[in-house]
Amino acid sequence: MNKIKTTFSKNVAIPGLVVILFVSIFCGLFPTKAAQILNDIKGYFFENLSWVYVIMVTLFIIFLIIVAMSKLGNIRLGADNSKPKYSFFSWIAMLFAAGMGIGLMYFGVAETISHYANPAVADTVQRAKEAQLYTFFHWGIHAWAIYAVMGLILAYFAYRYNLPLAIRSGLYPLLKDKINGPIGNIVDVFALCSTFFGIATTLGFGVVQLNAGLVSIGIVKESNFLFQAIIVIVVMMIAVGSTLSGLDKGVKRLSELNLTLAFLLMIFVLIMGPTIYILSTFSEGIGYYISNLSKLTFNTFAYEQEGVNWFSNWTILYWAWWISWAPFVGLFIARISKGRTIREYIVAVLLVPSLFNFMWMTVFGSSAVWFDKFSVSGALSRLSDNPDILLFEFFNQFPLSSVLSFLAILMIAVFFVTSADSGILVMNCIASDAKKQIPKWQNIFWGVLLIILSLALLRSGGLASLQTMTLISSLLFGLIMLVLCFCLWKGLRLDYLFHSTNPPYGSESWTGKNWKQRLNRMFSFSEKKDVRYFINNIVKTAFEDIQKELESKGIHADIQDGKRKNYSLELVIRHDLIRNFKYGVAAQKQNLADYFINEENTPDFDNDTTYVPVTYFTDGRSGNNIQYMTKEEIIVDVLKEYERFITLISDDKNELITVEF
C-alpha cells in the first residue's frame, strides 16, 4: 500500500494540530469555565497593559514611515530585476478581501452607530463626529500598519534571500541557522494556531450574521444551528474548491468580484442615501482624522477614567485582534507582493485600503446616523447591541431593500470564502515549511477540520472563549513582531550597503586601441542572430579562457545556458556555503524610437527593433551593454565583477546576504 504523500513538517504541523485540538476541545467541553478564566486574563491584560498595545502599534507605524521615506524604500521584494506577478487592482483586491472584507460588512453600520449611541465619554457634544472619528481610527492606517509590517518582513526575507516563506525566517539576522531549531518551530506553531483560531472564530461568529440576513429576506424562517451548520459547510466547500483552483484563479477572481460588488453597493447607498450629508461628513471626517491622528495614536484615556472601559473594549480589542490576525494576513500579503519595491508596498498597503475603508464607513455609518436622527427616531441606535441584524435594518430605509440585503448576503458569503481559502493556503504554507508543491488533500484536510471544530464550538458556546484566548496571545506576538522589525531593519541596512558598494579598485574595460571598431558597432543595430553569434564566439571564448585559468588554480567554473528569453550564456562558480558567482550575458530586445528611425543623420536599418548583449549577475542586478567590447575587455569586466564578489563575501558583516540557503 502506497504511503500518503504529504509536505507537512513534523516539527510544525504535529505540535500545531495538538494545540489546536486541545484548545478547541477544552473550550468546547468547558465553555463556561474557559470563558471565566480567559476573560479574567484578558481583563487584566487590557486594564494594566493597554499602554503596551498602544506603543507597539505606534512603533509599527513609525518604522514603516522611516523605511518608506529612506533610500531603503527603493529595495525590491525579490531580485532587482523582478516584476510584480499581479496587476495593481488584483493585488489590492486580494489583500483587501483577506484582511478586512468581512469586517466591513459586519461593522460598516454597526460600529458608527454603536459609538454614536454609546460614546467613549458620555458628555460629548459631537457624538456623530466622534463616532466617525473612532471608526476611522480603528479601521485605518493603524490596522493596516500591523498587517503591512508582518507582510513586509515575510516577503523581504523570502523573496530577497530565498529563505522559507515563514515567520521564523525574519529572525535570521539574530538566530542565524538556529531558526531551524526549537525557537523557529515554536514561532511557526504559534502562527499556525493563531491563523486557525482566527479563521474558526470568524467563520463561527460571521455565520450568525449570514443566518440573520437570510431570515431578513425570508429565505429561512429563523436563526438556528441547523441553518448555521449548512451555511458553514457550503462556504467551506466553496473555499476548498477555490484553493484547489490555485491562488491565480480561485482567490484572485473571488477577490476581484467582491471588490467590484462592494463598489457597486457603496455607490448605490451613496446615491440613494443622504448624498450631500455623506460627502460632507467624508471630507470633514478625513480632516478631523488627520488633525487628531497624533492624539488618537498615543491616547490611553489616563485622564478620562470614565472612558477606560470603552477604550479597552474597542481600541485595545481591535489592536489585539489585528495583531492576532497578522500571521495569517501578513503571510498572504507577502505571497502576492513579490516584485514590488518596499516603498510601493508600504504606501499602497497603508493608504489604499485605509481610504476605501474611510469611504465605506462614511457611506454606511454616516447614512445610518442620518437616518437614526432624522428618519427613524433612534430605531437604529436601539439596535446597537444587536449588530447581526443592524445592516439589514439599515437597508430597509432604501428602495429595493430585499435586493440590497441579498447582495450583502452574497458579499458576506464571498468574503467568508476568500478569508477561508486564503487562510487554508496560508496554513498549508506554514505547516509545510513554505514548500510549493502541496498535495490537494491537505487543502481538504484544513477545510474539514475548520468545519468540524467551528461547528462544535458554535454548538457548545465555546467560540467566545477561543476568541478571547486569541486576543490574549496577541500581546506576546506583538512583542515578537517588534523583534522582527529590528531584524528587518538590520537586514535592510546590510542590503543597501551591499548593493551600493563599489569595487575598491579595478581596471577600466575600455581603451583607445579599438576606437574605430567601437564606433562602427555603435551604429550597427543587430538582429538576434548577430547577438547569438557575438555570445557564442566572443563571450564564450572569453569565458573559456577564464575557466581554463581558474581550473589551473583549483577552482571549478561552469559555462552554461542561462535559460533566459531570446538567448543567454553564463559563467558560474559554484559554492557550498556561500552564494554562487554568476556572470551572464543575455540577448536583450530593444525598441528603437520613431524619432530616431526618422532622423536622416543616422545609419539605415531594416526594422524598429534591435538586440544587444547585456550582462546580469547573481543578485539580480542588470549590467551594461557589452557589444563594443573585445574578448580581452570582457575578461577584464568579468574579473572586475569577481573582484567585487570576493571583496563582499569575505566580509563577515555580509553573512546574511552572501550565505546560500
Based on CA inertia axes, which overall geometry fits? elongated
Specify the helix fraction band: 55-70%
Structural class given helices, strands, pairing? mainly alpha
Q: How many structurally independent domains?
A: 2
Low-confidence stretches: 504-508
- CATH architecture descriptor name of the largest domain: Up-down Bundle
Describe the protein's architecture and organization.
The protein has helices spanning 13-29, 31-48, 50-69, 88-99, 101-117, 127-139, 141-161, 172-175, 182-216, 225-245, 247-272, 275-298, 308-335, 342-374, 387-395, 401-431, 440-460, 463-500, 515-522, 528-552, 594-598, 631-649, 655-658; strands spanning 558-561, 568-573, 581-591, 609-617, 622-625. Helix content is 68%, strand content 5%. It is mainly alpha-helical. The protein folds into 2 domains: 13-499, Amino acid/polyamine transporter I (Up-down Bundle), CATH 1.20.1740; 515-658, no CATH class. Helix 4 (88-99) crosses helix 13, helix 7 (141-161) packs across helix 18 (463-500) and helix 10 runs antiparallel to helix 17 (440-460). The longest helix has 38 residues, at 463-500. Mean pLDDT is 83; it is low at 504-508. It has a 5-stranded antiparallel beta sheet with strand order 1-2-3-4-5. InterPro entries: BCCT_CS (IPR018093), BCCT_transptr (IPR000060). Keywords: Cell membrane, Membrane, Transmembrane, Transmembrane helix, Transport. It holds the Pfam family BCCT. It is a multi-pass membrane protein. Belongs to the BCCT transporter (TC 2.A.15) family.
